[in-house]
Fold this protein.
Amino acid sequence: MADDITVDTITGNPVVSTDEDGSSHVQYVKLKFGPDNTFSIVQDGTGLPVTPFAAILETGLTELIGEDSTEVSAGGDYSNTADFTLGATMSGEILSFMLASHENGDGVIQTGKGVVFFFDADPNVVAGDTDLAAIGAEHATIIGMIQVEADEWNADDNGAALFRTVAIPFHALSTIYCVYRNTDTSAVWNDTTPNNEVLDINVWFRRDS
């Protein structure tokens, strides 16, 4: 069976370009693009328009412990859960994060050690919780776990910051969740009034899909 077919019309017999597989024809087409009633032909030097996504993204500063949060005691209490809505379903890699600590009352600026957890499902913890969900359900959703030490903080009279470069790949997700666990033996967040210690986190990540 030969390529191409002839189309009978009242104006003649135009030939339509096709490819055939022995039993049927598949029409060859040229790609065009553009708004209604206009078009541009796709050819060398004029490809389909593509809007690339931003490869490196930032979650923005997000609260883990607020000044009104329940006390986060030393030795293992968890913070609130921070939700990072990514704006689309995507995969990629967490590249770095920053913890920011300050005091809105009369307490000290906390710079203790702890663990930063990233999850692919909501761990549903709030400030002051001593455990993740029972029977290890939430432990199974951890995609990254980073120990931070007290001597990593850079502190002055107005606040403190800790920056860490990491490599935490994540699969196709629309939201990443984060929790801080206070493993320090002495640092206590919001233990008594008017102690109003605050802990925020900012995360940078690469989008791969």
Remarks:
- Residues 5-41 form one domain.
- The longest strand covers residues 159-182.
- The radius of gyration is 28 Å.
- The chain has two domains: 5-41, 57-207.
